[in-house]
Amino acid sequence: MAARKATAVDPVAKLEQELAVLKTKLAKARADQEASLAKSITKLSNEAKKAASDASKARAKLATARTKKTPTAAQKVAAARETVKVCVEKAANAKSEVATLKAELKELKIANKAANAIAKAESKELARIAKEKAAKEKAAAKKAAVKEKAAAKKAAAKEKAAAKKAATKTATTTTAETKTPAKRGPKPGAKRGPKPGAKRGPKPGAKRGPKPGAKRGPKPGAKRGPKPKTATAAVTTAPAAGTPPKKRRGRPPKVRPAE
Prior knowledge:
Layout: H1 2-67, H2 73-179
Helix pairs in contact: 1-2
């Protein structure tokens, strides 16, 4: 795509360069033409002046020839008249050519002035466009630099946060490993059993209750009152079928005398 774009732009750039060279040549040719025309006008003006001077001299000779009364005076007068006629025609032609060249020079100057004004305006416009383009490119480059700087700053902040997070995680793991001791399990081949002096509780599934024939009642000297609730409730067993209900042991309830 870039190669195609470059190929498409190259002919235009080449033609623009050629056009700039041609414009320079054209301006130089116009200036040379104007200078050459001015030189031609100056030369023709000098020729016209010389022709006018020759015509004046011929008229003077003609007047002198007319005053002479010699046999050859008539011939001299005729020759002087012919010379005057030629000089007058030459001077008239020179003046006409000078007038034509002056008019042409005037038109050429007007055309050159207009062309120079157009070239100046075009150059000014091209300079303005180039200036705007340079300003846009500068602004775009500045914007891209700011964007790149912000992206780099953001990436650096992100990397810094990630590094900080990783460092915090590593520090937490190290602290946890330092504070929490490793659990020690039983050595292989060691016998497991209760430590000496340890209280042994009931085996799982054993029924708890009073032994047969044991007397139930308060111990001598013990305070009577409700017993505190224990964490474990006594396991009660339902009486077998056909067995009379057990009598309630302990003292009978007090009976208040009738008033």
